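dude i think i finally got it to work??
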Amino acid sequence: MLGEGPILWRSLVAFAVFCLVSSATYLINDVRDVEADRQHPRKRFRPIAAGDVSVRLAVTAAVVLGVVGLGAAAYVSMALLVTSAIYVALSLCYSVWLKNIAVLDIGVVAGLFMVRAIAGGAATGVPLSSWFLVVTSFSALFIVAGKRSSEMRIHADAGMTSARATLTQYSETVLRQISTISAAVAIAAYAIWSFQRADTADFHATLFHLSAVPFTLAFFRYALMIDRGDAEAPEHAITSDRVLLGIVLAWFVVFAVAVYN
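look at this
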């Protein structure tokens, strides 16, 4: 389906839209956290915290990026505009209020990942299956809980008082339970989907079944990184671990061949 011109074009525009609106909301969040970021060993190098970008310029850029992004979304479809607007509203609520409430902070960040996924369907008109939504949402919860756990570990090792209010409300046990439950649900949902998706005994079906193996191993590898305290920045954790990248590549190849075989 991605090979179809209109769908590919709408997917690319939706990608650009969320690059714009997410950048806008990240700027607002960094403006609000500027003083706390200046006390953090890594975040103090962010442009606003480091003084490379003024607060005024950051806010202006956020408004421009947000308006352009929502305008582009409206050009594609009303569904994408509504989804993008929900993302912006939820992000702003998180920055202003919800980030300070334990459990809700994790749920909202995971929800923002979900909105991104839903936006793809909204832009292209492709229906999203319940299994896709379950796997995506609980995978996001797993990653976000791991991020909080690593933040807690880093602050404890550095003898820092965390600027993130919710970290004082969590314990390693609670975060580990959230990660474990989220991973279990995501893996189980993917396994059930893979067997329902391929209900014949041919090679095509076998590939769907086999794709559950690297999918599960990816969770195990990332869990190891969480336990080491290396998952504070998920994007860096994923791209810097060659073993994890190899597992993800193996999953992608098996899955792609199964879909397009």
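The chain is about 80% helix and 0% strand.
im so relieved honestly
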